[in-house]
Design goal:
3 helices; 5-stranded mixed beta sheet; 12% helix; mainly beta; 31% strand; 4-stranded mixed beta sheet
């Protein structure tokens, strides 16, 4: 049995942690109901209230203020979640996932146990996405290495191409004296 990576389908602006309980928006825009980043997880009030009601062990909650420096607004629409159970990618197959659990991998990626996943799916949190194990981190082919045009030709000039152009040199002949 593997845990499920939990992510959001909603777009969220990047946030910068300032000090205890305060974050700054790095650009104008919306904040997702499930906003995660390095060493933080912020939940919208509805999701946070539901998570608190489940009494998930090794998880604590704190109010958070999100500042928009361009407008001076302070948002208190989210709750910070501290996940005290962490693991590394090498431990994923040996985790004890009995009951409802919330876990953090490397302080950045949030995972839930299967029973916690089913509890979240049973409610109206349609913006949450779940991926089993590390499947979301699977290596995908790097199409940027296939430097070919849609016609199958290389997208850069080859050696034969360079002979059609003069070598770099003086663009203008020197002025003739006399």
């Amino acid at each position: 049995m593997l845990p499920y990576l939990i992510t959001s389908t909603e777009y969220s602006v990047a946030l910068l942690e300032l000090d205890a309980g305060r974050f700054q928006m790095l650009e104008p825009g919306p904040i997702a109901q499930f906003a995660s980043g390095y060493q933080y997880l912020l939940l919208g009030k509805g999701l946070a209230k539901y998570m608190k009601s489940l009494k998930v062990p090794q998880v604590t909650y704190a109010p958070v203020v999100i500042l928009n420096r361009t407008t001076g607004d302070e948002h208190r629409s989210h709750t910070r979640v501290f996940v005290h159970r962490t693991f590394s990618h090498g431990q994923i197959k040996s985790l004890d996932l009995d009951g409802r659990q919330l876990l953090s991998m490397n302080g950045e990626h949030c995972f839930v146990s299967p029973s916690q996943k089913f509890a979240l799916e049973a409610n109206e949190f349609s913006y949450l996405q779940f991926s089993e194990g590390l499947s979301a981190f699977a290596v995908r082919p790097n199409t940027s290495l296939n430097h070919r045009t849609r016609y199958g030709r290389p997208s850069w000039p080859g050696l034969g191409y360079a002979v059609h152009f003069p070598s770099p040199g003086q663009a203008v002949l020197p002025h003739r004296a006399g």
